[in-house]
Design goal:
- The chain has helices spanning 38-52, 70-76, 111-125, 135-144, 187-201, 216-221; strands at 7-11, 16-20, 25-29, 56-61, 87-93, 104-107, 148-154, 157-166, 171-178, 207-211, 225-236.
- The protein has 240 residues and is an alpha+beta fold.
- It has two domains: 7-88 and 230-236; 95-205, Aminopeptidase, CATH 3.40.630.
- The protein has an eleven-stranded mixed sheet with strand order 1-2-3-4-11-5-10-9-8-7-6, with helices on both faces.
- A hairpin with a 4-residue loop joins strand 8 (157-166) and strand 9 (171-178).
- The chain is globular and about 55 Å long.
């Protein structure tokens, strides 16, 4: 991702940091450390969280991360592993996913639609680390437009929602969520297709996603291929 209003990005030869200002989570990616740099890196990420108002750092470790025992070293430095949110698949799609009939899917067009879609995502994920967004916070997020939100409608109700981050290489999918009442009716597949169409329109026909155990089987059926596996560790900064 590139820096933008409301988005902090910091890159070095050792790692890349990104965070939406005031959000709960920041990301630590492309980890290339030496063993003697671990504690310094943890301290620098803590500083980044303080600067961006975030509180939890997701450290994304892959087979390319260094040193070979970086996960053990990070755990020894105070990071933790959340078993239910540990293994993630980096997946890529470069051919069109199926068209879904009977479901309207498109980018949200109004603040009201945006708020309804974002609240559906929060309700489905029910992350205890994230507070409920206020109307003012949602309005500010909508105005910043750091990512675009797509939704699917069934019987006039928003049934699924997902975010899209447009990059120079393709579209990165985030936060795909389907309301319990709408599951099995094609809403999730429809928002994937709508974001594919947006990628094609921009001349970057590729979708990338970090998939957990729930979404991975669906994405595989749509043609996504795993290109890497991420192991998520986290560090937390106390605001006390």
């Amino acid at each position: 991702m590139d820096p933008a209003p409301g988005l902090a990005v910091r890159q070095s030869h050792r790692y890349a940091l990104s965070a939406e200002l005031g959000a709960t989570y920041c990301a630590v990616e492309a980890i290339r450390l030496r063993a003697d740099e671990i504690e310094v890196a943890v301290a620098q990420v803590d500083t980044f969280m303080a600067e961006t108002g975030t509180r939890i750092a997701s450290w994304w470790v892959t087979e390319r991360s260094t040193p070979d025992d970086v996960e053990d070293l990070l755990l020894a430095a105070g990071l933790e592993r959340i078993e239910s949110d540990y293994l993630h698949a980096a997946m890529l799609l470069t051919s069109p996913p199926p068209v879904v009939t009977g479901v309207e899917a498109r980018e949200v067009a109004t603040l009201e639609e945006f708020c309804e879609a974002r609240r559906l995502q929060r309700d489905v994920f029910s992350d205890p680390n994230q507070a409920e967004l206020t109307d003012g916070e949602l309005a500010a997020e909508y105005e910043l437009g750091l990512s675009r939100v797509y939704a699917a409608w069934i019987d006039g109700r928003i049934a699924a929602a997902g975010r899209a981050v447009f990059t120079r290489a393709g579209v990165y999918l985030m936060g795909g969520a389907t309301a319990p009442w709408a599951r099995g009716r094609g809403a999730y597949r429809a928002i994937v297709r709508s974001r594919w169409d947006a990628a094609v329109e921009r001349g970057t026909p590729a979708l990338g996603v970090g998939a957990g155990p729930m979404s991975r089987p669906i994405l595989e059926r749509l043609g996504f291929v795993q290109v890497a596996e991420f192991r998520r560790l986290q560090s937390v900064v106390s605001r006390g």
